[in-house]
Design a protein that fits this description.
253 residues, alpha/beta, six-stranded mixed beta sheet, four-stranded antiparallel beta sheet, 10 strands
């Protein structure tokens, strides 16, 4: 059985059909990328699957369980995490505190608050800090463990957001344009990090405009155009698909 199954998924905003009857499946342990022109419905699709939007029609199943319309909090407890196009970092907190926040959805909320406030639970606080520090080193931010978030570069903050999502210990992580706005060196670092995440056993679903990165990383690729599924396949199949070339890849194929 596939890890994620999406069947005839659609959402309408008034008369605008942002996603229309999209079908695909994702097997565990792969990097699955979603590409398409601006406005193709990529982030909307992410928002549908991760509980930000409720589908107009269609079904979403995670390990055979229907999850369409469930809240992001409910999905987090089932092992689903995500990042966003725009940074969602708390700039008035330290880097490690930002990562610690990512752990709260897999803990009892009162326990998490207590772990930050009461001396009797300092051990739990220390454990969370230890986990957060390890995640920061995992994403290549070991030098920022004691830093404030507002003192970090944009590229470092993008990886910090990934570390926070990983603090939820997801089985399935959605990364929405993790390389957007990065320089070539930072893009290579994120490329390597995405593969590292997948190699650790976490299934990755990626939206990204950097086609070199997509082709390098992806086991499977879904192409959207005007909210509809245009094509799906391996990188080589997508690269040679005439409909995809005409609609999106063009000279980049």
């Amino acid at each position: 059985m596939s890890m994620l199954q999406v069947n005839d998924l659609s959402i309408h905003f008034g008369g605008v059909k942002a996603v229309q009857n999209v079908n695909f499946t994702i097997d565990a342990g792969i990097v699955y990328s979603v590409i398409g022109p601006n406005g193709a419905g990529k982030t909307t699709l992410f928002n549908l699957i991760t509980g930000v939007y409720k589908p107009t029609t269609g079904d979403i199943h995670l390990d055979g369980e229907a999850i369409g319309g469930k809240s992001p909090n409910e999905l987090a407890t089932r092992g689903v995490a995500r990042t966003f196009q725009n940074l969602q970092i708390c700039m008035n907190m330290s880097a490690i505190e930002n990562v610690m926040v990512g752990a709260h959805l897999r803990l009892d909320r009162n326990l998490f608050k207590a772990a930050l406030r009461f001396p009797a639970l300092k051990k739990r606080d220390a454990e969370l800090r230890g986990e957060a520090g390890e995640l920061m080193r995992f994403v290549g931010l070991g030098q920022y463990v004691e830093a404030r978030a507002d003192a970090m570069s944009y590229g470092a903050l993008k990886r910090l957001e990934i570390a926070r999502a990983l603090a939820m210990k997801p089985r399935l992580i959605f990364l929405d344009e993790p390389a957007a706005g990065l320089n070539p060196k930072e893009t290579i670092e994120v490329d390597q990090l995405v593969r590292k995440i997948a190699d650790s056993g976490v299934t990755v679903v990626l939206v990204e405009h950097d086609m070199k990165m997509v082709m390098n990383l992806s086991d499977r690729i879904l192409v959207l155009n005007y909210g509809k599924k245009l094509a799906e396949g391996t990188g080589e199949e997508i690269r040679r698909n005439p409909d995809v070339i005409a609609a999106y890849l063009g000279a980049h194929a």
